[in-house]
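User: Second chain of the day. Same drill as before.
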Amino acid sequence: MKYLFIFAHVLYLAIARFSWCNRLSASRTCCNYPQIFPYGTVKICVKRAPAKANLCYYDCVFNAINICHKSKCNYLKAYDYINWIFPANHPFIDIYRKAFRKCVSKANELHSNRLARFKSRGCNPLPEIVYLCVENEMLTQCPMDYWNTWNPQCQHKRDFINNCLGKDIE
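Assistant: Same format as last time:
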């Protein structure tokens, strides 16, 4: 009976933690970082991507802005793109540069056999992996002037990323 109680308690905590994660605020409500994808590209890719196929959306966008091609993403292409869309003194330019360098490097290290099982409708999963990684970097590196201090869920999300998804690995 004692073990059943402990199991039930652990199960309750796991469910509570999972539902807590689902209640975390959206990234852009926590850090007001600038959108980097051109509206026209986004609009085209939303139309092209099948319903519920995020992989196809990110594959379309990253190919359109020339950051990814086929099964590889290129940090230097991302760097050039970031330099093209932001003025030199923009507060997010260095954050985006570092984020793309880290995330493209990590994503390209993934073995293609592992990624093949995540392919959806012929779309490459690598761009979405890069995007989610960059989004996490935006949250963990967000300048205080752009950080939402009034929503405690934002700090919970930042803590979750830092503690559960790993520290910055250079």
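The longest strand covers residues 68-69.

User: Great, on to the next one.
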